[in-house]
Amino acid sequence: MTEHPADKTSQAQKTLLLVDDTPENLTVLGEILMPYYRIRVANSGARALAAAASSPRPDLILLDVMMPEMDGYEVITRLKDADDTRDIPVIFVTALDAVEDETRGLTLGAADYITKPVQPAVVLARVLAQLELKDARDRMRDQNAWLEAEVQRRMQQNQRIQDVSMRALASLAEARDNETGNHIMRTQGYVNVLCQELAKLPKYQDILTPGQIEHITKTAPLHDIGKVGIPDSVLHKPGKHTPEEWEIMKTHAKVGADAIWRAIQDEEDPAGVDFLYRAMEIAEHHHEKWDGSGYPAGLKGEDIPLSARLMALADVFDALISRRVYKPPFTIERATDIIEQGKGSHFDPEVVNAFKARLDDFRAIAARYADKDSDGDPA
What we know:
This is Two-component system response regulator. This protein has helices at 23-33, 45-52, 72-81, 99-107, 120-176, 183-198, 210-219, 232-235, 243-250, 252-266, 275-285, 306-321, 332-341, 349-357, 359-368, and strands at 15-19, 38-42, 60-64, 90-94, 112-115.
């Protein structure tokens, strides 16, 4: 018996499907290959397709071309069209030796050709070569799948680290301004809802992409990060601020934006932290007003970054329904009236429309993250 490399490799555990409508041809191929491989046979194209899709799935198919009813060309076409069989290599075994016949088979996806009458050494060598190629492709596919999964895992891990880091920074500002409670969680939820609603408008479909919505939502908690730079005597003053104190208080917007800008500049690849540009916009401009009467830059209308216009409404709404030392919490109905009164003066009219369309979501977020000592009406 001809010695075959499969004796010394894992190829001996492979399954081959032999397809031929002539029993004698199946016998010849079987005698050559059975000492080295597990063999399945099919005597028609239809049975070959059924066998290829069933267990044990063949690692390689040796396919006769000239068969009645369904020839080998149709069989390989159907194999390559099916998700579960398209990756099985096929060797044509045929008496046809014209160049155009071989070209047609290779075009349809055949891995190789063996001409009849078959030679044992040729059959064994061609079969082994295709099985080794399939093993290499499978290993590469599995490795690529593992690498893709690992990259995805690392990206998700980095995403969680980013989210936790930003919330930790936001909590630092919150700890200095202990009146805000769950303010950062609520405003983040409000901003996301507004993004989702505005994204329905043709005007914003190319602006509020899923990626940009994620960036805006992720960075919303940093809107008041600049409060860490405000003196306690001003930040925690229980009564009304003097004009001088109010000017100091207003600097928190620029202080926060400058701190984020320095972080961006310290990064070797600023493009890798492009979400921080949204954070900088929000921190600096969420106190701007649609009519230009806000601070710190007095921007007007759409000159105010969209992310800041969203945050402006979310921040004011939450302040209205929350307890402050200078006021009790307002009901959602009263807060909604005040927001509507500010349409076109304080707030972007389209953002107000989005707010009204999603008021029930605002109610749900306010209830979910209600401050424990709140006696307002978040429900």
